[in-house]
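Review form for a predicted model. The reviewer records the input and the model, then writes brief findings.
Reviewer: anonymous (R2)
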Amino acid sequence: MTPQPDPEAGAAVKAADRAHVFHSWSAQELIDPLAVAGAEGSYFWDYDGRRYLDFTSGLVYTNIGYQHPEVVAAIQEQAARMTTFAPAFAVEARSEAARLIAARTPGDLDKIFFTNGGADAVEHALRMARLHTGRPKVLSAYRSYHGGTQQAVNVTGDPRRWASDSATAGVVHFWAPFLYRSRFYAETEEQECARALEHLETTIAFEGPSTIAAIILETIPGTAGIMPPPPGYLAGVRELCDKYGIVLVLDEVMAGFGRTGTWFAADLYDVVPDLMTFAKGVNSGYVPLGGVAISSEIAATFATRPYPGGLTYSGHPLACAAAVATINVMEEEGVVENAAALGASVVGPGLRELAERHPSVGEVRGTGMFWAVELVRDRETREPLVPYNASGEANAPMAAFAAAAKKAGIWPFVNMNRTHVVPPLNTSEAELKEGLAALDTALSVADEYVR
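Model under review:
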């Protein structure tokens, strides 16, 4: 589609938004949301006709881009046949979505509990773990994000937790590995892995293994920084969970469904959790959907004992029809393979080349279409370009970088002192190179703040 400027319509949309929409994670009078007129493929545009290459995939969920015709058609067809139906019944779209998901999850995660999104998937996964073990506590990492509902935000490890953390949620945080900013004074990935596992086992010991129901980890942390764990870490966590009878929950809400160049990030590490949460890319976010993939052992806990939880819209037919179409499109069009191939041949090399030329780049890390660029004031000291949880004037360098990126034609995913490169998985090589060129321009602005 060709963007058609219509500033008057855009002004009306913006006025209604500002009058009535209450935005998440925001001080309402300090935000200026862009009025979006349309989107297609890897691009969206505003009412002034400005087009942006979306390097955020929405919130890292439009894995097959915007308005894929086959998924749109599947939603329309399902709406014409059966728009909705209660979750206690067997419905074709729901059954087929569950079958397709279970066929791709690792190990014996063959039972699918559908939710409306990622946060309530985490809520239910942790409820299942507590009921299965009869234990109260959950361990989670500091550098993590698991959702905005009460339990999910409490297992989250970033500052969004603070306002809701009353220290009553039964959550204990620990340090997961991250060599670039190691909490363990490690100099190699091997040291970081070993010391992080020792720290985790010590935490388990001092908290009391018999009190811990679950350890929840993003397989590869997303919003917190896209930090692939060192070789052996997840396998080591799996061993600790087996040793102490703890449920391992892997959160694949952001990393799942091809984002890492595999169906699930767990496939990269040959680790099978007891529970796995998903959402976002399962249907490219076209209709809200999430879920929990459940192992046979935990499913057996509720074979004759009712599971005390559910949602009115669990497995909504429109959302499940979108999931069926999305998974089939990803298979037919080789979307997962495209993410792996272009991540390795275009995105990774392109970002590393930018790092060589821009002193503001401290580290590049990632896989598939899941990358982070760490921006610093000083490469030697690794001082972040902006302080932790910066806002206002303290965040000016990152705000200037983001503004420059948008002016250059890409919409960046910016969090703290990082920009994440997370475009749709079927973005073309030419589009990726266009985005990298825009990043090159924006990084020159970040370079101005280097000491």
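Findings: The mean pLDDT is 97.
Further findings: The radius of gyration is 22 Å.
Recommendation: see findings above.
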